[in-house]
């Protein structure tokens, strides 16, 4: 069985090839998740690239990304599998009309089975395992977490009428969480854990260079520095990498080449996501290095 | 990243190494389970770390399971593996310009000044392959006296009076009463569905399963309806000097709520401390002892507005959504009332119900005249006296009454106070 990656450096290089830059910690975490066949729980502030890390991983491996978005009340019927009842009832009517005999086993075949994300990941046929992204697990409720345990431990799903499906190769499972709710210890125990931090200024600049090709070098440099300083302010929602990319895209779209106070104020809505934060940043513009410009006559 | 001669760990018994490191982490309060240790060994086998940085990330990803433990992990790793790893560690960089300011509520028990940056223990790991002088050094009494373990100092000793013990009979009575009273706790409709007669939706799976008995003719429809859940509860308890007498009783209320309704509980005075995990301990004695240890700023001043802002900004702020928020405080605040009003308004927009428990409200002739209370009152649904156990025990019933029988009825006109001072 071939390994997916040779080492953490390989992960970093191949993710960079598909345009996603990760630090050595995230690369190690992703590498260990693939080599140890353990699910990986990614946590971090919103907008640091948890979901995009999983997407980039699938792209780098050239395997399908199977995504399960969590919400309260998510059930087995939406996460594991469901029978296609409409088709089953139709099949019943059809055989009755033909005067044929129908056994239970004829109705509960794979023909009538609807794959939901988890079963799809288990039944995936291919040289490489798929990447299964269980997004925002903290939004699901305790019942769903408990439902995941068998799957995460055994990589198998049991359907009473058909039997147990076991994965040929365990899928690469990435769970993300925004910590809006404490996850159960049993779930944490089953996963490797990585906390993604906001990237360093140099890395942030590198990421911006990749994602916003239209922006020029001085703009990216001053924008990263600005974001770094804004993050040190006491804000309700510190701008993440996603906000930084949005903001620089906005500035590039407005054809700004040198960051001035006027540009910061007009595009601030991309960085500050609440009125309080907006006031705080506007108030601190002076010390952030963008003083009130003298009125030109 | 400094390249060290490859391999980084020559001739080390991986299992013994992992167990020793895990043990050291556990002693420092990082809960490292057997699964995690096993993962660490497997990871070391899969990719032997060539540098200390690689070892750091391998150990961190496999051994640590939650973000608040990262700081302590860094300390232990630093103390074991010599030179500071902080330069390569983004977690430590958070204090720098690239990082966000640390959130108040996450600093549960800050170590005494000076201890955080220092190595905790100078002795190395009990390496099986190292000379016995090093591995035995830890158990040597003389050694212990020269290199003492860094323990929290008694700097905080002035405020270190324990929460007073409640009389055994009273505590028992309170517990029993609270258990029965909490049955009337308000509920909310969840998005999870369960089979029940009179539900709104037809459950196809169950209906078809039943139809198998009637020749695949769905004669009887099975219905599902939304399940009701207890509403989330967030309790904020003032433990400043002016609330010293009530602190123990409120701690009992918080524990009862944490156990029965899975409430999030916080204590505040000048800073906010999360007590949810501590108070949920099975033994009440241990729970209260640990809570006493956790709250470092008790019986001092009060900064209600500051603490509310910290809670709203932290990641626990999400738990306030649609929750019943109980604030237990006498309303003596060191912060300006405008700040409190702004924070309370934000809290009110996020929460379902805001209830203020004031120990002074039970006194005859009480009027909420302090500037703090007048600032907060417009954003409070219910102001309740909480000076005696009896008053405390009435709280769940009052809240249930306010939110309707099942917690889904319309909100009353605010502020609703049951005494004539409005």
TrEMBL record, chain A:
Residues 36-202 form the AAA+ ATPase domain. InterPro entries: AAA+_ATPase, ATPase_dyneun-rel_AAA, CbbQ/NirQ/NorQ/GpvN, P-loop_NTPase. It comes from Streptomyces brasiliensis. This is Oxidoreductase. One of its GO terms (molecular function) is ATP hydrolysis activity. It comes from the Bacteria. SUPFAM superfamilies: P-loop containing nucleoside triphosphate hydrolases.
Automatic annotation (TrEMBL), chain B:
Residues 91-108 have a biased composition (Basic and acidic residues). Residues 230-393 form the VWFA domain. InterPro entries: UCP010256, Uncharacterised_CoxE, VWF_A, vWFA_dom_sf. SMART domains: VWA. This is VWFA domain-containing protein. Gene3D superfamilies: von Willebrand factor, type A domain (3.40.50.410). Residues 91-122 are annotated as: Disordered.
């Amino acid at each position: 069985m071939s390994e997916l990656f040779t080492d953490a450096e390989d992960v970093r290089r191949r993710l960079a090839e598909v345009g996603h830059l990760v630090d050595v910690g995230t690369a190690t975490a992703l590498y260990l998740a693939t080599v140890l066949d353990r699910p990986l729980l990614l946590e971090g502030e919103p907008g640091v690239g948890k979901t995009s890390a999983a997407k980039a991983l699938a792209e780098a491996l050239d395997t399908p990304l199977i995504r399960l978005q969590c919400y309260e009340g998510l059930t087995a019927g939406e996460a594991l599998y469901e029978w296609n009842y409409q088709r089953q009832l139709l099949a019943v009517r059809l055989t009755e009309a033909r005067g044929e005999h129908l056994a239970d086993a004829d109705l509960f075949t794979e023909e009538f089975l609807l794959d939901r994300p988890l079963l799809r990941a288990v039944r995936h046929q291919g040289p490489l395992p798929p990447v299964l992204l269980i997004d925002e697990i903290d939004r699901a409720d305790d019942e769903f977490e408990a439902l995941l345990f068998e799957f995460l431990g055994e990589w198998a799903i049991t359907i009473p009428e058909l039997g147990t499906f076991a994965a040929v190769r365990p899928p690469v499972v990435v769970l993300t969480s925004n910590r809006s709710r404490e996850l159960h210890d049993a779930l944490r125990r089953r996963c490797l854990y990585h906390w993604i931090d906001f990237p360093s200024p140099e890395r942030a600049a590198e990421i911006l260079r990749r994602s916003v090709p239209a922006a020029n070098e001085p703009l990216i440099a001053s924008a990263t520095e600005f974001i770094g300083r804004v993050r040190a302010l006491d804000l309700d929602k510190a701008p993440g990498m996603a906000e930084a990319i949005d903001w620089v895209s906005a500035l590039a779209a407005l054809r700004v080449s040198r960051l001035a106070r006027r540009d910061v104020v007009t595009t601030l809505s991309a960085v500050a996501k609440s009125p309080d934060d907006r006031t705080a940043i506007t108030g601190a513009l002076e010390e952030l290095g963008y003083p009130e410009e003298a009125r030109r006559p | 990243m400094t390249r060290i001669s490859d391999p980084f760990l020559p001739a080390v018994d991986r299992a013994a190494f992992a167990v020793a490191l895990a043990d050291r982490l556990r002693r420092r309060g990082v809960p490292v389970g057997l699964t995690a240790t096993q993962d660490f060994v497997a990871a070391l086998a899969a990719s032997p770390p060539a540098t200390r940085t690689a070892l750091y990330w391998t150990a961190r990803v496999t051994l640590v399971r939650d973000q608040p433990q990262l700081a302590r992990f860094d300390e232990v790793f630093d103390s074991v593996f010599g030179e500071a790893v902080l330069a390569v560690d983004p977690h430590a960089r958070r204090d720098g310009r690239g990082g966000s300011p640390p959130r108040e509520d996450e600093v549960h028990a800050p170590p005494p000044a000076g201890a955080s940056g220092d190595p905790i223990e100078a002795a190395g790991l009990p390496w099986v392959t190292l000379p016995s002088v090093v591995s035995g050094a830890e158990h040597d009494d003389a050694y212990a006296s020269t290199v003492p373990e860094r323990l929290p100092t008694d700097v905080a000793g002035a405020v270190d009076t324990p929460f007073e013990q409640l009389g055994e009979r009273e505590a028992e009575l309170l517990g029993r009463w609270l258990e029965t009273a909490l049955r009337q706790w308000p509920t909310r409709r969840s998005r999870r569905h369960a089979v029940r007669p009179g539900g709104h939706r037809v459950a196809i799976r169950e209906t078809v399963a039943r139809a198998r008995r009637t020749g695949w003719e769905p004669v009887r429809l099975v219905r599902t309806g939304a399940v009701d859940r207890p509403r989330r509860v967030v309790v904020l308890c003032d433990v400043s000097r002016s609330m010293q007498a009530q602190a123990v009783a409120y701690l009992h209320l918080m524990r009862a709520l944490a156990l029965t309704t899975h409430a999030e509980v916080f204590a505040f005075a000048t800073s906010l401390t999360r007590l949810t995990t501590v108070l949920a301990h099975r033994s009440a004695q241990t729970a209260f002892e640990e809570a006493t240890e956790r709250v470092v700023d008790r019986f001092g001043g009060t900064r209600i507005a500051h603490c509310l802002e910290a809670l709203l900004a932290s990641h626990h702020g999400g738990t306030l959504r649609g929750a019943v928020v109980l604030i237990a405080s006498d309303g003596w605040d060191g912060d300006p009332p405008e700040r409190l009003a702004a924070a309370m308004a934000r809290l009110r927009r996020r929460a379902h119900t805001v209830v203020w428990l004031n120990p002074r409200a039970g006194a005859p002739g009480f009027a909420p005249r302090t500037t703090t209370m007048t600032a907060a009152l417009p954003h409070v649904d219910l102001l309740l006296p909480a000076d005696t156990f009896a008053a405390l025990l009435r709280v769940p019933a009052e809240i249930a009454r306010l939110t309707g029988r099942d917690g889904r009825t319309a909100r009353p006109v605010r502020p609703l106070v049951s005494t004539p001072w409005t």
